[in-house]
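Continuing the series of single-chain predictions for the mutant panel. This is the parent chain; the variants come on the following pages.
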Amino acid sequence: MTHSRRLAVASILSVAALAIGVHAHAQSKKYRFGFSQVTTLEPWRVQFNKDMKAEAAKHPEVELVIADAGDRTDKQVADMDNFIAQKMDVIFISPKESAGLTGVVEKATKAGVPVFVLDRNVNGDSFVQYIGGDNVAIGRAAGKFIVQALGGQGKAQGNLIEIWGNQGVQAAHDRHDGVFESVAKEPGIKLLNERVDIDWKQDKAYEYMKTMLRRFPKIDVVYAQNDPMAYGAYLAAKDLGREKQIKFVGADALPQEGATWVQNGELAATFLYPTPGAEGIRQALKMLKGEKIEKKVILDTEGVFPANAKAFIAAH
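Parent structure:
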């Protein structure tokens, strides 16, 4: 074989190898998914991203791009605009708030990009699917637990503190309404405090609970709308030596947070708020394969108590 012929064959082989490589890459990265996440400061959001990445990793045809909005609506709108401009195959959004993100979700839909809304919803129905937990069901489960802890239906007696996350978020109202479906029927249960936004934060709940403990010599149950606030309240009571007199109830049940605090005997109970990211990936792939999907997917909750906390943590 002449030198020039050898070069020609080598050239053909390298082009073929390149073509195979490009084809393999195209096969392995067939779909680009953009996810606009509101914030990564909250542990639940960190878990959310982790679960979503783990599911995406099971599907080599998926490339997942996550944008962190830093808890700002304007940044989240910009992230969505960026995904629309990139012509993502699917966009996921977990909105900071409904009204401010409705417009950009509609814009994506009009541009022909399917949008999946995760956790908090937007207004209207200009999206493919909503996936989230049922905050009313979480509240209901917590409410039933509180009534039982205070003596049972028709006999419950005790003083209750409720610690709110943020009244501007529907989830907070749902978790409140669910609890009070059963608690409001019990004349023996007295709600001691008014609504104050504690913004889902442990340190703010700690400071707020210190004030409540000074104001009220007898508190039987603290219901906080998430686990970090329940734990903050517990730490405030512990500092005053009153933690044994009070049952602390939270929600979210992250394995390394709420569920662990229940196992440690610091919280009396927590209720799972499942992250919707993994299900989002699965549902989007179903849609892209031409399968019919529902407009709304609601994920189940479960209670975590001292008796099942260890098993729950092992399973999650």
